[in-house]
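so my prof wants the structure for this chain in the tokens format not the other one, which i didnt know existed until like an hour ago. anyway here's the sequence
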Amino acid sequence: MKDPENKFSMNRIRWIFSVSSRFSRVDRKGRSRVTTTLATLGICFGVMTLIVVMSIMNGFQLKFIDSIMEVSSYHIRISDFDSETEAKIRAFCDDSKKIKTVSGFYEAQSLVTTSKIKQSVALIRAIDQDVYSKDPGFMKEVVMLAGDFDLTAPDSIIIGSGMARDLGCRINSTINLFALSGGNDVQLLSSDRIFKVTGVFKTGYADINSSFVFINSEAGEKYFGKDARKVLGLKLTNSNDDQLVINRLKKEFPDVKILSWREYNKTFFGALRIEKNMLLMLVAMIFLVVGINIYNGMRRLVFERRSEISILSAMGGKADEIKFIFILQGFLTGIKGAFPGMVLGLLLSVNSKTVFTVASRIMYGFSYAVTAVTNPENLVYVTENPMYAIYGNIPCRIFFGEVLWITLFGVVAPLIASWAASRNVLKMTVAEVLHNE
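here's what i got, hopefully its the right format
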């Protein structure tokens, strides 16, 4: 049977809290309290900064990723099937709750030209006429800047804003698919593949804006030739369920080719992931610096309190209980810093556009004042930095799991530092302390 004296009773816990609280309030040399306050502020601003940076980075990256998956790659691509298999695949997708939409399309590479003798390389995608109305994700990402997403006419074409700028096109301009990839039955060069621009779109990814054009599937079947292979693009309710859906599709249709969005954009998404991890590591160095400061401050506190510690030990305080006094201080430092930092980080992330607008005006006012004093004749050239507006328009994406881990890390860092600093809390005996005094 264990000795009840070795257990932390409620009286002993209250005693630990009382002594820890008194140690944090009463400081004979006045340095420990300042150290604790600075450590708390460091944890607070570290958590706040990390949450804001990660939220903006998530929004920046997902703006690209959403555009690619909703417009270009889809969540799952299926190819190498015949018309009978296509009907079965569509029926399977209609019965699955994990699949939102199914769209068929053809693709071909082309060199497009205009009457102004301008040209541009393009990816021609032939899609169904009703994709824009039936696919909410596609509609959300493809924002029409001019005209409508109307492919009802056989010669209608919709181009990206970047390509429209490069070609000098606008609504009702004509475009020729001058050079077109395909099989032996496709004429490589032709001046007869004329289309009329019915719309100009923009997405969150510049590559799509400068290279993608859409025509209807009937025109694709007509111009792409017999060797053109139809592809089915699947949109899932949750993009992370791609492997589960692929396994089911392979079981039902073993002869078709299935490609996930992870494979289709592996290099690009991998680069974004590395960028995010490196930024997370660099910003997380804040906690390392704060942890080292807490460790050094706590060691100094232990040394300053060596006489009180020895007296507590002489009066019956156990080593683990005395250590816990200092560990509790580190834990409370983390709590006091991490949770206010989390609240501030969430508030700044939600109101990032307002924050960047205010920062832009402050910087503009400062530049204006400095220029007015040092070089008044150049005041006409002082303007607000347009980059703040660009940063403010990045939609922040807040993930609960990331916020939770950042907050917990802000609590654990000072806790570990306090534990490390309190290991030798009873290194000196009572007699040695009193002798030194």
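also thought this was worth mentioning. The CA atoms of residues 34 and 297 lie 10 Å apart.
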